[in-house]
Amino acid sequence: MATPATRDQFIDYVLRKIGAPVIEINVAEDQIEDRVDEAVSYWRDYHYNGSQLVYLKHQITAADKANGYITLPLGLLGISRVFDLSTSISTGSGIFNVQYQFVLNNLEDITGYNVQNYYMTMQHLEFLQEILVGKPLIRYNKHVNRLYIDIDQDFLVEGEYIIIEAYDVIDPDAYPDVWGDRWLQNYAAALIREQWGLNLTKFTGMSLVGGVQFNGEQILQEAREDRQKMEEDALTSLQPLTYNFIG
Predict the structure, then answer these.
(1) pLDDT at position 188, please?
(2) Cα-flanking dihedrals φ and ψ of residue 239, to 5°?
(3) Residue 246 and residue 149: Cα distance in Å, rounded?
(4) What distance in Å separates the CA atoms of residue 134 and residue 87, rounded to the nearest whole number?
(5) CA 197 to CA 191: how far, in whole Å?
(6) Confidence band (pLDDT; 50, 70, 90) for 226?
(7) What spatial distance separates the first Cα and last Cα of the chain, rounded to whole Å?
(8) CB of 25 within 8 A of CB of 18?
(9) Cross-strand partners of 165
(10) Residue 29 above 70 pLDDT?
(11) How far is CA 15 from each of CA 10, 149, 199, rounded to the nearest angstrom?
(12) What CA–CA distances, in Å, run from 217 to 119, 193, 201, 222?
């Protein structure tokens, strides 16, 4: 069969993966939907394919200054940083900017043969900026969905823009290729198998016609082992290297 492209195709694929229709999967539709939601949620939080780096442009409003926070779009996992809003040691615009003046006075060296002095000077200015001014402190929680920037509110100029570096979840409705993700398929299968085994445990020892017995405990144990192994793998090997964000 072709790669699943919708939620329903994904569910059918996962059920076939664990034995349907040859074996009756004793899991209610609502339970299946819940396990798929749980799988997608975990995949977004801990798998590098579940989120993407985005840059959000926000125009400061009077309400932002009055509230002391900025309301962000729903679905963001976390905030990495906000580009400098604080006072800079190289303030100035146009010909009065420190970087402009340095390049102007060292143009021959830069264009001729040596950019080492320029590079080291820019690194030194960045170091001074970090030591003398620092970066704006930010606070964010994805459940509150408010970005607090802990600086003097005078630096938030109404009408000006700030750039926010954030991680946004991948929406399967917008990107149906998500349903073809192999890790997500295997993880959803493990969760549904675990639910299946949990449902069958109440029939442990009950015999069917022909002497066949339910063995929900074995299904439950195997599914839990698979789930735990996949979660450990996601936590140790599959997270983006830049997941040091707030939120």
Answers:
(1) 98
(2) -80, 145
(3) 12
(4) 9
(5) 10
(6) very high
(7) 39
(8) yes
(9) 55, 81
(10) yes
(11) 9, 47, 16
(12) 64, 11, 6, 9
Placement of tokens 């991680």 in the chain: 167
Helix 29-46 crosses helix 216-237 at what angle (to 10 degrees)? 20
Residue 27 DSSP SS3: coil
Q: Strands, E, within the chain: which ranges? A: 51-59, 70-71, 76-82, 137-141, 146-150, 161-169
Burial code (b: 16+ CB inside 10 Å, e: under 16) for 60-85 equals beeebeeeebbebeeebbbbbebeeb
Each residue's pLDDT tens digit, 52-75: 999 999 999 999 988 889 999 888
The tens digit of pLDDT for each residue in 86-99 reads 545 455 555 656 66
CA pair distance 20, 32, nearest whole angstrom: 13
Q: pTM for this structure? A: 0.76
Burial class (CB in 10 A: 0-12, 13-18, 19+), 10: buried
Smallest CA-to-CA distance from 243 within 39, 14, 51, 35 is with: 51
Q: Where are the domains of the chain?
A: 7-50+172-237, 51-169
Q: Give the integer Cα–Cα distance in Å for 148 and 135.
A: 14
CA–CA distance, 15 with 31 (Å, rounded to integer): 13
Backbone angles phi, psi at 81, to 5 degrees: -170, 165
Give the pair of three-digit tokens for residue 188: 């959803």
Q: Using CA atoms, how far apart are residues 31 and 55, in angstroms rounded to an integer?
A: 36
At 118, list the tokens.
Answer: 């320029």
